Amino acid sequence: MSVGTTAPTPAEGQLEAPSDADPDIQLAEGGGSKSPLKIAMTRLMRDPVAMISLGMALFFVLVAVFADQLSGLEGQNTTDLNLDLIGDNTYPIFTANTEHWFGISSGLGQDLFARWVHGSRPSLIIAVASAAGVTIIGVLLGLLSGFLGGWVDRIISWIIDFLLSLPFLLFAIAIVPIAVNRYAGTQVGDYVDEEKVATIRFLCLIFVFVLFGWCTLARLIRGEVLSLREREFVQAARALGVPTRVVLFKEMLPNMLGPIIVSLSLAIPGYVSAEAGLSFLGVGLRSPSISWGLTVATAQNSFQAHPIYLWLPVLGIALLVLSLSLLGDAIADAFNPQTRR
Amino acid sequence: MRWTKVVALAAAGTLSLAACGGGSSPADTANNQASESAGTGGESPAANPTSDAPEEKASAGFMPDAKGPAPEIAGAKKGGTLIINAAGAPTTFDPSGQFIQDVNQILKQYVTRTLTGYSMRDGKSVLVPDLATDLGTVSDDGLTWTFTLKKGLKYEDGSTIKADDVAYAIKRSFAQEELPGGPTYQLDYLKDGDKYKGPYKDGDKFAGVEAKGDQVIFHLRKKWPTLPYFGAFTQTSPIPKAKDTKTEYTKHPLSTGPYKFSTYKQGVELTLVRNDQWDPKSDPIRHAFPDKVQFNFAQDAPKVAASIMASNGPDAFTLSYDGVDASIYNKATTTNKDQVSTAAGPCVSYVTMDTRKIPRDVREAIAMAWPYEAIRKGAQMTKLDYSPASSIMAPQVPGFDKYEPIKLPGGAVLNGEGNGDPAKAKQMLKDAGKENFVLSYYYSIDNPLSVQVNTVRKQLLEKAGFKVKDIGLPRTEVREKTILSKSDANLMQGASGWCYDWPSGDGVYPALFKSSLVKSQQTYSTGFLSDPKLDKEIDRISGLPVEEQGPEWSTLDEKILKDYLPLLPDYNSKASAIYGTKVKNVIVDPNQGMPEFASIWLDQ
Questions:
Q1: B107-126: per-residue pLDDT in tens?
Q2: Which of B233-242, B254-263, B381-390, B499-508 has the least mean pLDDT?
Q3: Taking an 8 Å Cβ-Cβ cutoff, which residues of chain B contact chain A?
Q4: Is position A18 within any domain?
Q5: How many domains would you assign to chain A?
Q6: What is the interface pTM, i.e. ipTM, of the complex?
Q7: What is the CATH number of the domain that holds A322?
Q8: Percent of chain B that is helix, strand, coil (3-state, to 5)
Q9: What is residue B598's predicted lDDT score, i.e. its pLDDT?
Q10: Which residues of B touch A301 (CB under 8 A)?
Q11: In whole angstroms, what is the distance from residue B574 CA to residue A148 CA?
């Protein structure tokens, strides 16, 4: 990307081959051979918005990874009740101090900093795991459906259409109790260990996100494959008798890296906010899991008297989603040879 | 009765109170998560007090000679518009088909007069005659009660109130199908009450009630010494048959009190204006100071609380009976103390223990470990919402001796205070050889406050050496499961509290501790006691004359806790009202858990 450089920008509507005008690609040509991936990376590195967003996202990743150490540094954990610090009005008697950096929750007096750093974990894990699952399944089925055609294509396309017609939210709400019953092996109303329920809910969220996420990506990939399939290099490879597997993964997949990475980077912030939203509504994670969405749900009653309780998880979600979205946008731009900024 | 506010609190805090009769959603406060659960009412357990002994005209808490007009209030001024902002949204104002705390008080204080009524005298709530000349006379066999109407009483349209109309209204309260939501005591006590289905289905012929001249006569199936309290139910408020619009009546109940309906939009607003046909000289209960009373329903409680505390413009003339929101607690207890009125409410909340499943020594360990205050903090209850309880009955009931909190042999004191002693409880369990005793209970998983409460409860019980099996369910299922006689839970089953419908023990103990309750599938039995000796004692006291019952009930109260320990008294509800700086003389009636609206005046 050429922000901050003195590179000339082609006039609007001018139909020029990108390689003639884009300094990155000129550079690439000068250097002999550079793959589209490398070109995109170079453009990305020069984008300050992308770099700031990346830094922010990395910050949250580090917070999530070192959550235990961070709360250890503060000297608190996520579950201890500090009832002596709760006043008669059921709100904490202070906002924040050196022992409780972000204060404590109203009613229970649990340390909010410890809960905040631990709250970033499910957001990131669920988002990354779901995005990875979506990408793998979506790419695989998209490739197969596009390349093989025929009845394979028809079946996969039908499944995609079917899944896209299902209401996501209803499904997300309905699947959790079913899964708890199914995998905890009990009747409604029987005792199930809450840790087990928490794990099942965690996996359920990932499952639902993947189930509803892969179809759009598969559709996209299928379209790309359909156009690539008739290109000369693919024809040549097939004429030479290269096995289908190799054609798919060595010839076609590298050419679709752009759209895949773009979809991946835009999916992650979507899943972060979806996790928080579902947890807020009570259909996502559930106590004793710690999640920003859950904290928002309990904090909303205390908003007027104890605002820090609500603000911090909201800020966490907002910053993480914003930085990931901006990063995703920047990546999309970097991979698109048509963009100029 | 549906004591909406307390139900709300209890749902948030520990569990839902069960006592209050059926009826549809009264008070889903818009903002308060806690009270969402008030939406689904438990079926009325219809306490079935039995009485076998003869009795006479009662007097405990009674003031049969009270005459109108109501006692003068020094400095009271007439005029102005009183605004009442409520979080609840009443669905009905039909006097026959309501049994809900707020609707009840609005109707009784402003619109409909009843045979008898509660009035605050010298800080005490007493029962006084209202439409009737006295609190009723009972026949020698105890099966016939007679009330005589005062003369010259009129409806808002100028027509005369007749004894026939009172009798018709009582018959109308049997039309439980057409007008659901009312109490069911009359079905149980009045003659043929179990068969009669109301005037719409079965016509006017009903043996349970009769009008003779200006007399209303009740014929009973079994003795009912506390019937004068039933006279204060809006179900005894007269309705002329010719003007009965059935299900439409809720839109404009014919006024007999100081105010009449002017505009009414269901669940949104109600405006009351003066009823010029009301004669203050005949009424020992009500005043009529403001010219107009404006109710706004389904209001956002924290917002209302903040604006009342600020008291700007019309907010200075505004009152809210939804208690003191935690967000204004500090103001309400210090600088703005004058804008708060608080009194005990009629509800007591319990921690029930299934005596069939939890042995006595473990029950004592639970009593030692129970973190009352931590749980209340978790439920975000403030001291304006509760006071610690030490008895099964609310202590303000007439004749009740408030005994010293019981000290159990194991050392625990049943005073509803403190955070328990986990170390001692652990030792008690160890001594009993019951370490890691499993306590299981249901709690509502879709209410953040109840989840928060469970976090405290579970953590602190585990600290005391119990193993906790907490079964999280959606709140509607929790309601169903907690009243099952056979269930997986051994803690917090049955009634999680009780609100009396009239201030006497015969509406409380029989409904909680009789052994017949344990046999039914769904039960409010508390602790699942089944002891014939206890049954007999309850029956004996229920049959005593009303004024002798009070002390006997308190002796029994103490005995049940000491000898059976089926529950830990948790807290007594408190009823609070907050109001703007120009609203004067707000007194909360502890028997109703609501402000006595009719005494309020405005400082213009």
A1: 999 999 999 999 988 878 88
A2: B499-508
A3: 31-33, 302, 306, 326-327, 329-330, 333, 373-374, 377-383, 419, 440, 442, 445-446, 448-449, 451-452, 454-456, 459-460, 469-473, 477, 481, 488
A4: no
A5: 1
A6: 0.75
A7: 1.10.3720.10
A8: 30, 20, 50
A9: 93
A10: 31-33, 380, 448-449
A11: 73
